[in-house]
Structure formats: C-alpha cells, structure tokens
Specification:
The chain is α/β, with parallel strands linked by helices and 198 residues long. 53% of the residues lie in helices and 14% in strands. It has nine helices and seven strands; from the N terminus they run E-H-E-H-H-E-E-H-H-E-E-H-H-H-E-H. The N and C termini lie close together (11 Å).
Length: 198
C-alpha cells in the first residue's frame, strides 16, 4: 500500500486538493477532522484537556476559542496540549491505516497540515506539498471571516516557510492556476507514483 502525506501552509489550497485526491478514489485520513472529533462531547481528548486547561472545556467539549486564549496567555503550554493530542491522533490514524490495508486499498492519503512542523515524522512513501505564491496565499487567508493581518502573521510565524517545505517534499501541487489544473497535477502524480512502485 502506498502511503502519502498531503501538507501545506494556511491558504495554499490543501483542503481543496485533498478533495481532488478523494475524487480520484484515494481514501484520506484528515488530522484536523480527527482533532475535532477528539474535542467533541465524548471525545477522548476532553478529560485530559480539562485536567490541563480547566476553563477550556464547556458543556463536555473543548471550546477551541477558549483553548486558544489560554495558549496565547501561556505559549509554553502548547507542548502540554501536543502531548495530549498527538498520541491520540496517531492512534486513530494507525487504526484507520490497518482498516485500509485489510480492505486491500492500494493508496492512502494522510491530510496533515503541520506535517513538517510536527515533531514526529510518519514513515510514508511520498510527501505532497500544496503551494501557491505568497500574494495569492495572503489574499485567500485575509478574505476569511475573522482573519486579520496580525493573526495571519502570527500563524505564518509558527509555520515552516513554503520554500523550505518545497525542498523537503517529493511532489508540489500549485493551486494558483485553478482547480482544473490542480486536478491534472493530482492525476499526473498518482500515475507517477504507480509507475515508481511497480
């Protein structure tokens, strides 16, 4: 089974590109969606986060905005949060991967936004980066509700520069020329992966 990581900084078009892989029949594990489930009522991260950040849990679920405020006040506690969340996500991903292997799936995709920024690297066959020019990225992000230049700058400061991510990736999909072109790039990458793994 070929295992792919799809990654990319904020505003690069990663979520749309993940859908293009899904359209091509590639099942994906979405790390962000997994975290949302872990934070929801009954989620496995709720109790340990409540113990570490008591005021960030409301009505049995993690309030992401309150958690963000606590972390803004005490940035060093990011490590505490990561020590809770990362192992849980890794466990869910491993369970999902086993199910895919048992089903005879040929290729799987791990959608991991902060793959290069995270401490633990998955052993995968290929890393695919979603990228766009800095001005396109900036325009996309600043068009989002509740986004400001200050917030965007803070987010970028926590992410590895795109140029460095390009050097570390096996493939780069550029998203500034439209979805149709991105779809062609996805198809070409999947063809190439199939050829190199025969």
């Amino acid at each position: 089974m070929i295992e792919i990581v799809l990654t990319g900084s904020i505003g690069m078009g990663k979520s749309t590109t993940a859908k293009l892989f899904a359209d091509a029949g590639i099942p994906g594990f979405d790390a962000d969606a997994c975290v949302h489930a872990l934070y929801a009522v009954g989620g496995e991260a709720v109790a340990p986060i409540q113990a570490a950040f008591p005021t960030a849990v409301i009505a049995g679920e993690v309030d992401r905005s309150l958690l963000a405020k606590r972390l803004a006040e005490q940035p060093k506690r990011f490590a505490v949060l990561e020590s809770i969340v990362h192992p849980l996500v890794a466990q869910k991903r491993a369970e999902w991967t086993i199910r895919q292997k048992n089903q005879g799936t040929k290729i799987v995709l791990y959608d991991i936004p902060l793959y290069f920024e995270g401490g633990t690297k998955l052993k995968v066959d290929f890393v695919v980066l979603v990228s766009a020019p800095a001005d396109v990225q900036r325009a996309r992000v600043l068009a989002r509700d509740g986004m400001s230049v200050e917030k965007f700058t803070q987010i970028l400061a926590k992410q590895l520069p795109d140029a460095q991510k390009r050097k570390k990736s096996d493939y780069v999909i550029t998203t500034d020329t439209g979805i149709a072109d991105a779809r062609l790039q996805v198809a070409a990458i999947l063809r190439h992966m199939g050829e190199t793994n025969q």
